[in-house]
Amino acid sequence: MEEKAINNEVVTRFAPSPTGFMHVGSVRTALYAWLFARKNKGTFILRIEDTDKEREVEGSIEHIQKSLKWFGLDWDEGPGVGGPHAPYIQSERLDLYKKYAEILIKKGLAYADPYTEEEIEKFRKEAEADKKPFLYREYRREDAPAWDGTRPLRFKVGELKRTAWNDIVWGELSAGPEALDDFILIKSDGYPTYNFAHVVDDIEMNVTHVVRGQEFISSTPKFLSLYEAFDIKPPFFVTTPPILGADGNKKLSKRDGAKDILEYEIEGYLPDAMLNYLAFLGFNPGGEKEIFTREELIDVFDLSKIQHKGAQWSDEKLNWMNKEHIKLLPSDEVKKYVLQYLPKEMQDDVIVPKIIPLIVERISKWGDIKEMLTKGELDFFYKAPEYEKNKLIFKNTLPEKTTENLSQAIEALKELKEDNFTVDNIKVALMKIADGLESRGELLHPIRFALSGLDKSPDPFTIAYIVGKNETLSRLQKAIE
RNA sequence: GGCCCUAUCGUCUAACGGUUAGGACAUCGCCUUUUCAAGGCGGUAAUCAGAGUUCGAUUCUCUGUAGGGUCACCA
What is the Cα–Cα distance from A405 to A138, expressed in whole angstroms? Predict the structure, then answer.
């Protein structure tokens, strides 16, 4: 056996199985492992655990990598980048597991399973009927045949004792001997089980901190018995709480509507905002600050401040956080994103820079721009709107009065030079008239409506400024007519 | 059923055994405003229950209750 590297370097890993897309739960686990590695200037490994060939979904490995890349969770070792422990795909490491299996066999700690699947199923049913947990070791036979690879290879658990260990998140944990059993190391198809393969790989890859979901707590005694069998000091365990669905307390799963993480990219969320939100779903550094950049997150991240209980997903808070992150973005970045979502014919060099602040104010994610488009909330910046005349009138104002007001407005705006046609100047000019009226709405509503044709829109001054003096005058003139 | 874990506003969470139990999202109200959005100010809202330890318990212990995880030739 290779001597474990003697240094203090932190090594974490993310080890998904390629059974489909990644959802927020797996990404958060990856994020915690990544944050911890980055904080400690350690190594973050991506390892693909494809030992269940039946469940494997075509294209998953690429999809996982794409997802991690979108988040900016870069891996130092793994598919695509290689590393000292390559390959990083378990199905390509079968010889290694076999080697470790031979060690156990030689030590008398592994044996071929003499039963058929049907027989075991019967045992399981019996246990269930007796309301007892199923423990294979109670049926262990001493006449096991030699392992030829066609039968499952089982671990022979030693002393049945209480297992106690320390988890960085949960503290002291322990479990009774019921948690120990003769579990399968290598399946009859030649592939190792998760229980076996991940331990071997974590040993081989010198993983120091195993970050994973709490569904693995109950099998940790099994893992520990393996480390003991190999006489290797186990890594630190870092167990993360589950992410719960928004409408209940069930763990978020693909079945319950957990989305492919790349859907969030399509919907126009910022990776840094997702990172921030995900990190804070189950972790809190203690202060009152909530918006963190990627670097700040690395700085404050602390494994011991991860929560113990599941946290409910909230689109609302994610949206809010995304908006906050949009505010943090430099303007050229914002422009780049907006252009991505704006149809070609709207990508006008003069108008776009002016309407960007208006857009940003009204959305929480880039995908919302599409909604604005379908609602026609941007069209009026480009062309004169169509509308029903009567909507032009403010409340009970007389049509004649409205016409008179608009005429006054036109006169006032004509006074403004092209160069002085700014939001502030327009506002001053129009307010002077509006303040002389019974209600400002008598003037401002018709103007806003004439310019936008919408019940809800930005203020008239801003629209006038954006469409320009000539267009403004022409729309107002049209309104009078 | 066995084993393991968890429990603070609706939600995410903060609080060396001593706080008017804090913040954020959501919600409600007000201000600003012709409308929308954004912004500002403010309100409603929580320690699961019961014992015990202690001068004092959200915090420590026990019991109960509720919820979650796990008991695969899945990870």
Answer: 93
Cα A444 off chain centre by: 44
CA–C1' A129–B15 (A): 48
Side-chain half-sphere exposure of A226, counting CA atoms within 13 A:
27
Q: Which residues of A belong to the active site? A: 254
A58 CA → B55 C1’, Å: 67
| Alpha carbon A330 to its chain's center | 23
The pTM for the full model equals 0.94
Residue A249 has pLDDT above 70, yes or no: no
**Buried b vs exposed e over A78-93: b needs ≥16 C-beta within 10 Å?**
bbeeebebeebbbbeb
Give the other-Cβ count within 10 Å of A349's Cβ. 6
Q: Which nucleotides of B are covered by protein (CB under 7 A)?
A: 1-8, 10-15, 22-26, 33-38, 67-75
Whether cis (ω within 30° of 0) applies to the bond prior to A87 is yes
Residue A294 pLDDT level (bands cut at 50, 70, 90)? very high
- Residues, chain A, total? 481
Mean pLDDT, residues A14-41: 95
Residue found by looking up tokens 């009026």 in the block: A380
| pLDDT per position as a tens digit, A84-140 | 999 999 999 999 999 999 999 999 999 999 999 999 999 999 888 888 889 999 999
Say what the ipTM of the complex is: 0.95
**Nearest DNA or RNA nucleotide to A244 (CA to C1'):** B68
Question: How far is residue A81's CA from residue A44's CA, in Å, rounded to a whole number?
Answer: 12
Please report, for residues A36, A327, A369, the alpha-carbon distance to residue A126 in angstroms, rounded to integers and kept in the order given. Answer: 45, 61, 59
Distance A289 CA to B19 C1' (A): 20
